[in-house]
Amino acid sequence: MYNQYVEDKKDKLSKATIGNYTRLYNKIHAHFGVEKDEPANMEEADLIMAINNDMVTNLGKKIENPNTKTALFNTVISVRKHFDLPITKLLKAKEELLNPIYEHRELVREQKSVALPQYKDLRKHITNTFEKEDYVGTIILSLIDEFFTRNQDLDVYIVDSTKKAKDPDKNYLVVREADMVYIKNKYKTSKTYGQLKKKFKNKRVKKAITEFIKTQPEGLDEYPLMVNSKGEKLDDTSQQKFIKRFTFKNLSESDYFKIRVNEFEKKSDMQGLLDASKKRGTNLNTVVTNYSLKNIKPPN
């Protein structure tokens, strides 16, 4: 049944989504025993009891995180809905997790607000990275700082003309004599916001790019920024590891964004939040809900 679901959805869902659903679906199946019927065919009450009370993490501890439980519910609901199987009870059980999710999020926010460094630490780290002649790190950190990027957004190709930035499946950093252009085609919310293009000037980034290109093979029309030691493109997991090599204390891009959002909030800088929202390609309400450390309310 699940294999048929994947076959039917392969052109409608991303590979990452299908991979995540497969992992969670197999986890539910393994909980009951692979010799048993597939989760999609089980009674709703049995699935609810398992997800809410019985399932454990890979370390053998009971699953308590409401976000994990919600992801498990989403997976089995999606499969059952595809085959017109009952989901009413599952939807109700998922809805009852909304308050626990909110409480969990608030707890994480409180912990983050204490543990995360200040924005000035991130700025100083960019300067230190440049002074150490780590030019790839300088480019990556500067794009995160200027454009509030996610990991995938940093998979850029450096070119010297917008005429060379034509592939709709690539992100580009165009280096011109007077300025630079960051062109974002492939990113998480691209279906909503389409291509995002921004001009900017930064002497340090321009110097870093010049030095980076000197290390690359001659005769290329474009220079990929994130590749492994063999010059091969990185998958999603490897991209995250690659980027965290350069960030302050190996923070994630999500942590970087939380720090920036918190900085705007401290200064009551709503325009800064709006600008960050547009550059990242994230709805302002989502920014405040998921990244705010102080829970301010966005304008109506």
What's the short version?
With 300 residues, the chain is of the alpha+beta class. The chain is 55% helix and 7% strand. The chain has 2 domains: 106 residues; 173 residues.
| DSSP helix fraction | 40-55%
Work out the helix count: 14
> Strand pairing plus helix content: what structural class?
alpha+beta
Q: What is the arithmetic mean of pLDDT? A: 90
- Rg calc: 22 Å
* H and E string: HHHHHHHHEEEHEHEHHHH
Annotation, overall tally of beta strands: 5
Percentage of residues in strands: 5-15%
The residue ranges in which pLDDT falls below 50 over 5 or more consecutive positions are: 295-300
Instruction: Tell me, briefly, the overall form.
Output: globular
Features:
alpha+beta, 5 strands, 2 domains, 14 helices, 300 residues, disordered C terminus, globular
What does this structure look like?
The chain has 300 residues and is of the alpha+beta class. It has two domains: 2-107; 119-291. Helices cover 55% and strands 7% of the residues. The chain contains 14 helices and five strands. A hairpin with a 4-residue loop joins strand 2 (171-175) and strand 3 (180-184). The radius of gyration is 22 Å and the shape is globular.
